[in-house]
């Protein structure tokens, strides 16, 4: 999450402003997916003059490595530092929204590299959801939904040898609903 503050320019809509702020703050000119998430407008959300926050969910692929200024850092969502005001609430809202979208859309395309082994995709899902996901079940569910395509390539074998893992890619790189009634749940 990048809390970017800025003024909406006269010639911009909110999405254009969010893209500009990402480019200026973290040198990120292209995100895999960007959507307006929510508006936080509680009059008491910050001290001083009233401020309204329009928040966005932006997904940066695993392979991206934008240059960050000294006052900015990436943090695992499971180990976020202390945040001011209602920023923790904003981040939790974004994570919950991403987790929900992982259940019923192909949104993971925005987090994955172009080609990936199922173990890599599993790690992405585990990090975003906050619990362990079985790679075999994940592959079966996503395969049934038609969101993954085998590339025909393999990754190098791991340290213990064995068969090289098959590589996959997402069929689409635009958001689409794949199962409107699905819900990923933590193991019981």
Automatic annotation (TrEMBL):
Annotated keywords: Hydrolase
Gene Ontology MF terms in the entry: hydrolase activity
The keyword ATP-binding is assigned to this record: no
UniProt-listed SUPFAM superfamilies: Nudix, Winged helix' DNA-binding domain
Signal peptide: none
Segments forming domain NrtR DNA-binding winged helix: 109-170
UniProt xrefs under Pfam families: WHD_NrtR
Keyword Hydrolase: yes
Region of interest (Disordered), ranges: 147-166
InterPro entries to which the protein is assigned, alphabetical: NUDIX_hydrolase-like_dom_sf, WH-like_DNA-bd_sf, WH_DNA-bd_sf, WHD_NrtR
Top-rank lineage group of the source organism: Bacteria
The protein's name in its UniProt record: NUDIX hydrolase
């Amino acid at each position: 999450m990048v809390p970017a503050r800025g003024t909406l320019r006269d010639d911009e809509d909110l999405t254009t402003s969010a893209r500009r702020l990402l480019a200026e703050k973290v040198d990120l000119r292209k995100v895999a997916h960007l959507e307006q998430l929510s508006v936080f407008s509680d009059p008491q959300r910050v001290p001083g003059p009233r401020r309204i926050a329009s928040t966005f969910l932006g997904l940066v692929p695993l392979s991206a490595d934008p240059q960050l200024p000294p006052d900015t850092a990436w943090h695992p969502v499971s180990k976020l530092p202390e945040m001011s005001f209602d920023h923790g609430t904003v981040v939790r809202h974004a994570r919950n929204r991403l987790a929900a979208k992982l259940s019923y859309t192909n949104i993971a395309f925005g987090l994955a590299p172009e080609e990936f082994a199922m173990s890599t995709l599993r790690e992405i899902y585990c990090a975003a959801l906050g619990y362990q996901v079985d790679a075999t079940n994940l592959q079966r569910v996503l395969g049934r939904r038609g969101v993954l395509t085998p590339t025909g390539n393999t990754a190098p074998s791991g340290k213990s040898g064995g068969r090289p893992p098959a590589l996959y890619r997402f069929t689409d790189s635009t958001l689409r609903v794949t199962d409107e009634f699905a819900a990923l749940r933590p193991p019981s």
